[in-house]
Amino acid sequence: MHLRCLLFAPLLLLLSTTVKAQPYTIKGSVKDTLNMNNLHNASITLIHATDSTLETFTRSKEDGTFALNVSAPGKYILMSVFPGFADYVDKIEIKENKKVTDLGEIPMVTRTHLLKEFVFTDQYAAIKVKGDTIEYVADSFKVRDNATVEELLKKLPGLQVDKDGNIQAHGQKVEKLLVDGEEFFTDDPAVVSKSLQAKAVDKVQVFDKKSEQAEFTGIDDGESTRTVNLQLKDNMKKGYFGKVVGGGGTGDDQNYFENQVMANYFKGKKKISAFGIMANTGKIGLGWEDRDKFGGNNNNTVYEDGVMYTYSDGDEFDSWSGQYNGRGYPKAWTGGLHFSDKWNEDKHHLASNYRYAKQNIEAINNTFSQIILPNNTQQFSDERQDEFKTGQRHRVDGLYEWKTDSLSTLRLTVMGNYQNSLNRSTYNQYNMDANGDTLIDNQRLTTNDATTQRLNSSLTWKKKFKKDRRTLMLSMTENYEESESSGFLNSVNISSINGTDYVDQKKDNDRQALQLNGSAVYTEPITKVMAVSVEYRLGVNNSTSERTTFNKSNPNTDAYDLRDD
C-alpha cells in the first residue's frame, strides 16, 4: 500500500505541474473586409506593451483562423500583416481568470481602398494607419524624463534600434529620419534619434518614401526608402534644447572617458543643431555609415615572396560604426553642424550639414603557440603584432531649392568629402624547436598613407504643366574622385631550410575618376489611370588608375628608384 502511494506521488506532482503550466490562448480570424475573403498566411505577431519585446507569432490558416499561446496574462499589442493590406495594430489585455481570449474577426483593408484615416481603437489611439503610413502618438508610450528619441523608438511596436543606433522599422532598415518632413543630418538617422528629446515629438510616422522622380511624376518606379518622420509639438518648434553627458573611469592599464554635447535651436522653420563626441571607450560616433557609403574602398591584397600585405587608395578604417577588429579601443573625436531654413512662403529652402570624425587606434597582439608534431617532437612559436591607425574625415553637403513659380522647381545639391589615413604595423614571428634552435625568424614592417577627395553635385529642374500628370524633369549630375596612397613593405624572413629572404618595396597607387550624367524625363497621361513616360539618359565616364612598385637600386640608401614592372 505504501509502495503504491510512493509510485503515484510523482505522477500527481507531474499532473499538477502540467495543469499549472497551461498557457493562455488568443484566437481569431483574419478577413478581407472588402471582398469578404479569408486571408491565408497572414503574419500575426504579439509583443509586450511594456517593452515591445516579442512574445510569440504565427500565421493564419487556410480558413483565416489563428491561435497564439501566451505564457502569462498582461497587456500586449497584436499586429496582423498581409501583403497589399494596411497593417492592423491593436492593444489587448489577457486577464488571469480568462484562459482563452477570442478576438473574433480581424478586419483587414487593402491599401488602395484605404482613402481616409483608419483608426483601430478609440479616438485617441496610440497607433493609427493613414494610407501607407503607420503613425504612433508619442505621448502614449512612456519613457523616462529627458529621454532621447532613440529611447522612444525602442518603445514603439515594430521598431528596433541596435547598439550602434541603426533603426529598423517592420523588418527593414530605416535609411532616412526626417524632422517635420525635412532631412536633418542627412547621412545619419542616429544623429537625430540621439540628439532630439522624446518630449519634443508629437507623432512618429513610418512609411516607404518614393523616389524623387516617382513623387514628381506620380508614376511608381519601384524604388522606395523606409523612412521615419518625427512631427514635433508646436511648442517645441522654438527655443533652445540639448544635452551634455560626461563620464570617466579607470581600467587595467589606462583611464577611460566618454563625453557628448548636443545642442539645438529651433525657430519656426529655421533649425540649427550641433553635436560633438570625444571618447576612448569604443564609442566612435553616432552610427555614421562605414566607408563604403562614400564610394566604396579600393583595398588591394598582394602576395609576394610568401608575404601578404594590404594597401589602399581609400580610407583604411575598419569601420566608423563601432567595429575595429576587436583590437584596442580607439580614441575618437566626432562632431557635426546642421542648418536649414525656409522663407518667402516656402519658395526658398536652404539646408547644409558638416561632419567631422577622427580616430586613433593602438593595438598589440601577442600569441605563443606550442606545436606537437606526429613524431612527438615539439616546436614553439612566439608572435607579436603592433598596430597604429589614425585618420580623419571631413564631409560637407548642401541643398538649395527654389520654387520659381507654382509649377516649376529648381534644385541644387552639393557634397564634398575629404579623408586621409595613416597605418603602421610591425610583425615579428620567432619559431624554434625543443632544443632552442631557430627555425624561422620573420620580421615585417608595413606602412600606408592614403588620401581621398570627392565632389558630387546635381542640378534638377522640374516642371508640371496645367494638364494633370503631364511633367518634365531635366537633371545633370557630376561625380569626381581623386585618391592617392603610398605604402611600404620591409620584410626579413630567415629560415633554417630556405635561407634568408629580403623584401624592401614602395608601392604607389593613384586614381582619378570623373562621371557626368544628364537625363530628361517626360510623362504624358493617356487615360485617368495610365500614362506614358519617355526617358533619355546620357553619361560620360573617364577614369585613370596607376599602380607602381619601386625597389632600391642601392640597399644602403633610402631612395626607391628602381621601378618594378
Short overview:
The protein is mostly beta strands and 565 residues long.
Description:
The protein is mainly beta and 565 residues long. Helix content is 7%, strand content 59%. Among the domains are: 88 residues, Immunoglobulins (Immunoglobulin-like), CATH 2.60.40.10; 265 residues, no CATH class. The protein is built from 4 helices and 32 strands. Strands 19-20-21-24-25-26-27-28-29-30-31-32 form a 12-stranded antiparallel sheet. Helix 2 packs across helix 3. The N and C termini lie far apart (98 Å). The N terminus is likely disordered.
Relative helix content = under 10%
Strand portion: over 45%
How far from one another are the termini? 98 Å
Number of helices: 4
List keywords for this structure.
565 residues; mainly beta; Immunoglobulin-like; twelve-stranded antiparallel sheet; seven-stranded mixed sheet; 4 helices; 7% helix; disordered N terminus
Chart the SSEs and their pairings:
Layout: H1 2-20, E1 24-32, E2 37-38, E3 43-48, E4 54-59, E5 65-70, E6 74-81, E7 88-94, E8 100-108, E9 118-119, E10 127-130, E11 133-137, H2 149-155, E12 159-161, E13 167-169, E14 172-173, E15 176-179, E16 182-183, H3 189-195, E17 201-210, H4 212-217, E18 224-232, E19 238-250, E20 255-267, E21 270-279, E22 299-304, E23 307-312, E24 331-343, E25 348-372, E26 378-402, E27 408-433, E28 438-464, E29 471-495, E30 499-525, E31 531-551, E32 562-563
Helix pairs in contact: 2-3
